[in-house]
Write a structure and sequence with these properties.
Length: about 50
């Protein structure tokens, strides 16, 4: 989806985790948080 000059890439929780792991982040450093509505997911990487 295009929004002005931005291209939005919809990703699932699994997609975000896979993206982090494929980038070399340790699995125990990765988690996904979300809003109550689950509309927006946030990839959180700690201690890496």
């Amino acid at each position: 989806m295009e929004a002005g000059d931005w291209y939005l890439h919809y990703r699932t929780e699994d997609d975000l985790i896979r993206l982090a792991l494929e980038s070399g982040v340790a699995e125990d450093a990765v988690r996904v948080e979300q809003e109550a509505t689950r509309v927006n997911l946030f990839l959180v990487i700690e201690g890496n």
